[in-house]
Records
---
Amino acid sequence: MAGAVRLKKLTLKNPFIASSGTCGYADADLIPLDKFGAAVTKTITLLPRQGNRPPRLVETPAGLVNSIGLQNMGLEAFKQFLTDFKKPTTLIVSVGGESPEDFATIVEELNTYDLIDAFELNLSCPNVKTGGEVVGKDYVTVSNILEASLKSTTKPLLVKLSPFTEQLDKILQHWESKVEAFVLFNTFPAMDIDPRSGKPVLGAVSGGLSGPAIYPIVLNSIYKYSKAHTLVASGGIATTDIAKKFIMAGARALEIGTGNLWNPAFIEMLLKEV
């Protein structure tokens, strides 16, 4: 049975983290969040976002394609939400933005909240100012965001990267000693088509693929980089056997996403079998 794990500053009662987008603002009723080592909120942006037009989710034979579009209440409403919020476990707030200033402002505004244990910088979300590229597309953009964020908070920072982040080796090497952990990875670009209409199923046409289809790709990177870096695995951890493989590959903790959506009691299985 999996016990407590330590990243750097952050200690979790077990290595399982409910990933952003699958547990609301760490207030989902259907998932027993108190059993997780940590829970990551929906990504918070400066201003509220309505998200993409529906449909937003489609199942595929080995995964789930989502196109939520970072729908969230925005920073000010989230601060009000925290006033009466009782966290179920270690609380990690996911932060998104379109510039280093956006990230720095959000973490600075939330830095004084004692119930927040850490931040996860979502550097794999689309940036509308640069034509849909991920925010953390390369070493320079990632570094600018991290420099601004580290100056704005005393809390641990986890950094969630895209599988297509350029200069990944350089990013990991330079920032390893300065951040709490790297989360590898977010979803992979994907879409599906309705065979009857011939039209894309998702309202936004394309989205991100999660689920078992992507785990061998993520596992490869975890195995490659875990000896020198503090890594949290994220991608396709939908069975207990897959979870065991990521731990064997060197992941310190595991973010569970699609597994929670398919089975809200999946954490019970993980705690018993991994």
---
Amino acid sequence: MKNKLILVIALFLFAVGFDYELLGLAALPIKNQQYLILLVSFLLVALFLIPATYLFYRLEKKFKLPYYFFPLAFVCGYFMPGWLAAYGNQAGVEILHLVFGNGEFIKAWQDALTAPIVEESVKFLVVFLLLKLLKVRRSAAVFVLGMAVGLGFQFSEDVSYLVNQASQDFSQIFAVAFSRLSGALASHWIYTGLVSLGVFTIYSKNRLFSKKWGFFWVIAAVLLHFVWDTPINDFQLGELSIVADSLTAFSLFLIFQIIYQLWQQEKSSLIG
């Protein structure tokens, strides 16, 4: 009965998200020719999915995970959490303005004060549902599943940025596409992987790591997301985006370190 309820909730979230994403495209005030240009911009942003898909293929093979883990989690990450995040962020911004007013400081920091909490929460909700439905019990599987959900959400967010741009100023559509592609190296796929593994490590009895690592990964994900959305991230040294590049480097370091640790831990458990 419990699994059936979880499945119904997951299917409901997916159904609403499916309509939400596709109807948003249908409502655009653009011509058919412009839809083709918009599709090209989607494909441009999707270039990041090529190396990402190869990475997930290697991880599934390395950790002996089912082949359907990545595509299932990616599709769920694309359709399920996006609409929840949109409404959650909007509500968060309205609460901030209600409490603190409409000053320039709040407007500049509103994304950073809402998105990390709202988006990391709704993405983990999707991960949690998948963990229950697939009966996942291994840290490596949780980590890969979390990253895949995050990647799906990341691509849906890229699409939403392009859709919003198309509805406002179509002439800048490719500039937005390149901007989203440049930030793809360290984004939601990393944050969700860290949060998922962190929460699993804190609460699961089958964890490979101590709880302090779990808390560290969750806090690190929220802080990385927070700083990325703040005006601090706009700081440049000449033409170099020093803050953004530093966040990217640190995020990738965490991911590669975790993959290495997971592999070493799993090898030790197999030998033991």
---
Amino acid sequence: MPDDPLGIFRLTGRVAVVTGAAGGVGRGCAEILAAAGAYVVAADVKDATETMEIVKARGGDGETACLDVTDKAAFDELTADVAARKGRLDVLINNAGIQRRSTALEFPAEDIDAIVAVNFKGVLFGCQAAGRIMLEQGSGSIVNIASEAIDRPAPQILAYAGTKAAVRQMTRNFAIEWGSAGVRVNTIAPGWMLTPLTRQLNVAGEEGAATDEESLRTRMESRAAMSPLGRTGRPADVAYAVLYLASDASSWVTGQAIRLNGGSSMPW
């Protein structure tokens, strides 16, 4: 046992890119990785300035980047630029995602295309862009954020669930191909939590309707009741799991899916 067993979680000197970092889970991941010592690039199609202000106010370091994950060339350019300036790229958190709802029978083609572009292609492009750098340097950890929807069917989320299941399988393929080169690829499949993405849904799970605090409280209580632990998730719950997978503490972990859902689904 080393003198400092918790030191294995430290990321001092490492460089991480987090997508979808302007808020919610992405912001939580950026904060905890920076707190562990990583230089964090908070990337988002939205302005991630507030995230970086929080990171730096807590003693961390990093920068923001405007990134549309559906743009493969932009993803390649971002990772190459970060690696050139910082000398390395150690961690990628593929967190950016969108949700649109419809019945399975009537799901609009344009909504399916949008979800596939962000949730599937965006993750694929990220893995490819970061993977090229990590394979050359002989080390790296990629964490793809999926959803408990990979195990738990629900109405009106056909396209979302399908892309998240594809992310799970994509993770396994990259892990198989890249493990011998020292690059690990894992998935986290979170359960329901309050984020900007889920806040836009009302108690019936319908998107676009304004959610008052009463219906939001009812929705959270119903979700909490699904868990043996009796609560919904928090972005910090995902962030700490991300820290584990990004750090050397998980050096023998690849191709896995961590079901971070309070026990609301147990597929095994």
---
Amino acid sequence: MNVIAVHGSVETSSAPPYLASLRQSALAGHSAFASGLVDAVERAIMSLEDDPLFNAGYGSVLNLDGEVEMDASIMDGASGKCGAVAAIQEVKNPVCVARKVMEETNHVLLAGKGAAQFARDKGFLPFNPVTIQQRASWEKVMEARERGETLELSAFTGLPKSCDTTGCVAVQNGCAAAASSTGGSFLKLPGRVGDTPVIGGGIYASPWGAAVCTGLGEAFIRLQAAAWVLNLLAQGVHVNLAAKAAIMRLAAEGAVGGILAIDPKGNVAAVHNANSFPVALVRNGKVIGDFIPVRITGN
């Protein structure tokens, strides 16, 4: 049994182009199952990092200084191995660098200039991930700030309707893995790191399944949300109930977000308390078109 699911973040448009890209990502990941489970989640996230519709890799949002700093992570539930990069700049696919950290170092997380140098040492070529749209958005907001105005734009990016973290969970023959990538939050302080590269906060995988998070990263870190979901699964809680409980816990903190989780049997849960949370699910090579994330309202 091969199951893979990807999300494009909370507050991301569910318009046809976005859903088509998410399905393409899930199918790309599914096609990589032949090479292995970790290959599958990495390939799915690479697809989203290459797509300027999403806030990961090419198309990432700009920080307060007008630069892109990206975070990414990957984790193999069977072995417990994981790798991550934080505030990395000028690479095309941060998730691939995160995998190199996992497989070719004794570390879990590399950040900033050290992460970028590691990427160069491993053969990753310099790449400018800034799109014309994100640069224009940053300039528009900075001009408004100089005039003392506040623009009503996405809490996560500078675009009217955009996205935050991208994530993927997958199961192959009862083993789970996860991967995640983001450009972070729009106009963040330089050096700010959210939950995406924080193992246990924004991502976790174990013999009991896998989970990835998106939304207000600081809240997910404080709550150790991804690991908390997996702890519930280890206690026998169904994946749908575990994800719902985690989002209710998040909402109690006054935060907005979404969680995508999977158990070893391939049961997938997508729960959020935002306006939107587009997800694509592929099971044994078939796109499950009627899979709808659950939206929770209230605390």
